[in-house]
Design a protein that fits this description.
Strand content: 15-25%
Radius of gyration: 28 Å
Structural class: alpha/beta
CATH topology of the largest domain: Ubiquitin-like (UB roll)
CATH class of the largest domain: Alpha Beta
Number of strands: 33
Strand order of the largest sheet: 13-12-25-24-23-14-15
Shape: globular
CATH architecture of the largest domain: Roll
Largest sheet: 7 strands, mixed
Helix content: 25-40%
Length: 810
């Protein structure tokens, strides 16, 4: 055994189980419950196996070979059961309770206690999602340790002392955490229970399937449990390489959309302005006739996907667009693309990606343009673990500080649009120092117009730029640069981050918000990329696909999402697959206007959205828990999932819809998922080496007296998205609408916390209560992108590099 291995872990290694309550493999040892007492030869009293490391020559006797250990464990169990209620038949933990199991296996078989048990008022709602039954608590401190060690949300604590000690929350402060559901799962008794699952089912009464969460790109492994073909509970599954045993509340409690009555259950065709239910055959015939008519008439066809599809769906859509529609007008992004964005994404697909393990072992982690807690919560936990347990330096670059920058890390605040200046400033500093073999590469990385001017506009202090340069120089190959998908909206920033990572030998990680975005990128749901990272403009790449598919592939790069929506009047058929551009596109009105101008729209979706309501044909898609498939997370790791419940109505997986449409159109297409997977596997290609990306012209950030603020906006984890329809308890924990301004700006404008503030751009206006913060860049204002009552997307103009706004007290 390695030095420092705990006795309890050594016992597990030889398949010997020592009972425990407080011990957890991902929490620090505590020895609170005393249930794991063992005998160690040479010691006068039993020791806790969960806190005692093994040593050379140590002889340990467990409950199977030591009367001392057996008596100690029986005594602890008897003591725990003195006040623990024997309400197993009605307790939610019944049937999967360690206290139940260990009392049977290792308990004394009876109790000498005859007095009345302690009682408390129950249950106590410590949040809208978590209920506390205090009399069941065994004081293992798993919940409080999770809050302090893992999530960093110390809203739940142990109060009082001795016999009165109990789990509680601070007065008038609910347990506010996007990870609160984890304390329910790791509670070894029924003290903490789920408001959503309470009294719904028993473990032996549910069917269980392994799955993958599809609500962000973290790729969390889950267990989906159903009763009578209805999902009743979602738990985190153990995968040490991905989510360990954790997941966020959105993934745990946000699956109600699967069983909503609003689900599209059968194909529908619009007739005389109303949707009419039809058979699959008729719906396919109508769509194919329109495709043929559009191509005969010389009109373009196009497809949009929202980054929510499984890998098979994304590949099928990409193949369908190239072989049936005959177009490269296909995109999974909900924003405008740029040549810089395309070049970096091409590199991301063809080079080895960063993994969770890389992040945990990194010495330096630089996060640019991403709020990981809101956009990739499990990656947030891994970065926090790297900093708190392994001493990694964490540096954030962006317009708003997140819990990582406020906690163990540091933040370089800069207005949106100036991130490239900060990164290039650090590159210039490293080049000035002549850092070994990197100096020449760094000088090339800095070579972009306006770089120094952008650095000046970022207001980043010289010492901040120096600290970033020092960190990257010291980290080298042990440094990781993580970039959010929205960084592509800041011209030059994505290329600057890629080139900087390449120059110093750091690892580059691209972290999209949506679950299927990395898989869509590999599948070629992109106007200039083909499956496997191949390029549309490369004859050799096209030839590989033409040989496999049996049809020619257009050599002309297609239009991006903005180009498609701007030119819908010339688009005979527009396919929407799991996307809602009317609500989600990064422009105030372009998505809605584009769909209104489209001659014929086909929408494959789960629910009626603002976009699917404008469609001519609706095709019911199966939700993730209703079908088999695979999903590629932000790392580039493809993971399989299985169907847990029956599809609603006659819904089908998206890949199957495109397969049947293609065959209806007379184009050969894989007919089974296995055939599709074999074709996808044939397109896997060896990874290449990273190469520098040319920097674009960097536009300047220009303020004026009428619009003196720069808008910063991105979606919060819990928002008004269609995937959270019906998740009432979960949404009740979401942050209320707000507008966030810096303290200096608030004082200058006479704004106090809670005042109504109006934010106005050239595209719209938002009013919401103010938050005053020290963690936002000067002359910047943050508005959540998709909050009800404070919708930052309504202010955006995606045609501009930055959105300028006016802020005033109402």
């Amino acid at each position: 055994m390695a030095a420092g291995t705990l006795i309890i872990r050594a016992a597990e290694h030889i398949d010997t189980y020592i009972p425990r309550f407080c011990d957890h493999p991902y929490l620090a040892p505590l020895g609170a419950c005393r249930q794991c007492l063992v005998e160690v030869e040479g010691q006068r009293k039993p020791l806790t196996a969960c806190t005692t490391p093994v040593a050379d020559g140590m002889v340990v006797k467990t409950q199977w070979s030591s009367e001392m250990a057996k008596d100690a464990q029986e005594g602890v169990l008897e003591l725990l059961l003195i006040n623990h209620p024997l309400d197993c038949p009605m307790c939610d933990k019944g049937g999967e309770c360690p206290l139940q199991d260990q009392s049977l296996a290792y308990g004394p078989g009876g109790s000498r206690f005859i007095d009345e048990k302690r009682r408390f008022t129950k249950p106590v709602p410590i949040s809208p999602l978590v209920y506390l039954d205090r009399e069941r608590c065994v004081l293992c401190a798993r919940c409080t340790r999770f809050a302090n060690e893992i999530s960093g949300d110390p809203f739940i604590e142990l109060f009082e002392r001795g016999a009165l000690e109990q789990v509680a929350i601070f007065e008038d402060e609910p347990y506010e955490s996007v990870f609160s559901g984890n304390v329910i799962q790791i509670c070894p008794v029924g003290a903490l229970t789920s408001a959503q699952f309470r009294f719904k089912a028993r473990p032996f009464d549910m069917a269980t399937e392994r799955s993958i969460c599809n609500l962000c790109a973290s790729g969390c492994n889950t267990v989906v449990q159903s009763r009578r073909d209805q999902i009743v509970r979602v738990l985190a599954a153990d995968n040490a390489e991905v989510n360990e045993v954790w997941m966020c509340d959105k993934g745990r409690f946000g699956q109600s959309y699967v069983q909503r009555p609003e689900r599209i259950a059968e194909p529908m065709v619009r007739k005389d302005g109303e949707f009419v239910a039809v058979s699959w055959a008729e719906a396919f015939r109508v769509v194919v006739e329109q495709i043929h008519a559009a191509r005969r008439g010389g009109m373009r066809t196009a497809a949009l996907s929202g980054g929510r599809l499984a890998d098979e769906d994304a590949y099928a859509l990409s193949r369908f667009a190239r072989t049936v529609l005959g177009t490269n007008d296909i995109d999974a992004r909900s924003r405008a693309g740029t040549p810089e964005d395309d070049a970096v994404l091409h590199q991301v697909v063809r080079t080895p990606g960063v993994t969770y393990t890389d992040v945990e072992r990194a010495k330096v982690i630089v996060i640019v343009g991403s709020d990981l807690q809101q956009e990739s919560p499990i990656l947030f936990l891994r970065v926090r673990k790297a900093a708190a347990r392994h001493g990694a330096q964490v540096i954030e670059v962006g317009g708003r500080t997140t819990p990582l920058g406020r906690g163990t890390g540091r933040a370089i605040l800069c207005p949106p649009g100036t991130e490239a200046g900060v990164l290039l400033g650090a590159a210039a500093e490293l080049a000035r120092r002549g850092v070994g073999e990197w100096a020449g590469d760094l000088r090339e990385a800095v070579g972009g117009p306006n770089a120094s001017a952008l650095l000046e506009q970022s207001h980043a202090a010289t010492e901040q730029i120096g600290a970033l340069a020092d960190a990257l120089a010291s980290g080298g190959a042990d440094a990781v640069i993580l970039c959010g998908d929205r960084l592509a909206q800041a011209h030059g920033a994505l290329a600057a981050a890629w080139n900087l990572a390449d120059a110093v030998g750091a690892r580059f990680g691209w972290v999209p918000r949506r679950a299927g975005m990395r898989g869509a990128l590999w599948a070629g749901v992109h106007p200039s990329l083909l499956p496997g990272g191949r390029r549309v403009d490369q004859p050799g790449d096209r030839a590989e696909l033409e040989q496999l598919w049996g049809v020619p592939v257009s050599a002309t790069p297609g239009r991006d999402a903005r180009g498609i929506l701007s030119g819908t009047s010339d688009t005979g058929v527009l396919i929407l697959a799991g996307v809602d551009p009317a609500d989600d596109f990064g422009d105030a009105t372009l998505g809605s206007r584009g769909l209104d101008g489209a001659p014929f729209v086909v929408a494959s979706d789960l629910l009626l959205t603002a976009s699917s309501r404008k469609a001519n044909v609706l095709l019911p898609a199966a939700a993730f828990p209703e079908r088999d498939g695979s999903l590629t997370d932000w790392e580039g790791r493809a993971q399989g999932f299985a169907a847990a419940v029956t599809p609603v109505g006659v819904a089908r997986p998206d890949w199957e819809i495109f397969s049947l449409l293609a065959n209806e159109a007379g184009i050969a297409f894989p007919r089974t998922r296995d055939e599709l997977r074999r074709e996808m596997n044939a397109l896997l290609r060896p990874t290449g080496d990273p190469a520098p990306v040319p920097l674009p012209t960097l536009p300047m950030r220009r303020l004026d007296e009428h619009h003196p603020f720069t808008l910063l906006t991105y979606p919060m984890l819990l928002d008004s998205g269609s995937m959270l329809v019906g998740a009432g308890e979960l949404l009740s924990t979401a942050q209320p609408p707000f507008v966030e301004v810096g303290r200096a700006d608030a004082e200058r404008l006479g704004i106090a916390r809670g005042d109504r503030v109006k934010v106005t751009s050239a595209c719209g206006t938002v009013e919401a209560p103010a938050r005053v913060s020290d963690g936002i860049a000067d002359r910047c204002v943050f508005v959540p992108a998709t909050h009800v009552g404070a919708r930052g997307l309504s202010l955006l103009d995606a045609g501009e590099p930055v959105t300028l706004v006016r802020v005033e007290k109402v």
